[in-house]
Amino acid sequence: MFKLIIFIFCLLSFSVESKILFFGDSLTYVIGNAYKKHNNDTDVIYNVGFSFISNHEYMFNYIDNSNLNKYDKLFIVFGTNDFIHSGDIDNYSVLSILFVSRILHHNKNIEITWILPPTVKNDRKNELIQHTKTAIKKGMKPIGIRTVDPDTVFGGDYREKVDNKAIRTADGVHITNYGANLIVDLIQGI
């Protein structure tokens, strides 16, 4: 009987999945739902057209009024709608640090990964997105938060396809299910 109890305990210990939260702009929807195929215990909270720089107070309030203690991992997906200039890098970086600090205040054990915005079809916006990526990385590195760049699997320049399969939608911004699966493979590999 004792061996049976030990066996059941071990089985349950290895089968428990982490509770995951994907939190961010419209890209969050497709990436989070692709991740959900690998872990059903995944919540996806997103806001279409969300700009972290313009709407950060809403997100801070959301964090303050949520139960983050139930999550083991958090994937932040902000930045695609934030087209900042080089002079705004420091301010955006500080804002991102404050946001992550607020999250850690509510759950000091949560593992956070910030998924950076991918390149988009518009060259001028890509220049500004590069500033956003720089700001996020500048803020996250000193506090030990991992960043993941979708361009690692998409390529540094805007592409509509990888391996002859569409990774981007016709609008030049959003990601297809195949593109989301590539990002999920990337974040699961870290």
From TrEMBL:
GO molecular function: hydrolase activity, acting on ester bonds
A Pfam family: DUF459
SUPFAM superfamilies: SGNH hydrolase
Domain of life: Bacteria
InterPro entries associated with the record: DUF459 (IPR007407), SGNH_hydro_sf (IPR036514)
CDD domains assigned: SGNH_hydrolase (cd00229)
Protein name per the record: SGNH hydrolase-type esterase domain-containing protein
Lineage, opening ranks: Bacteria, Pseudomonadati, Pseudomonadota, Gammaproteobacteria, Enterobacterales
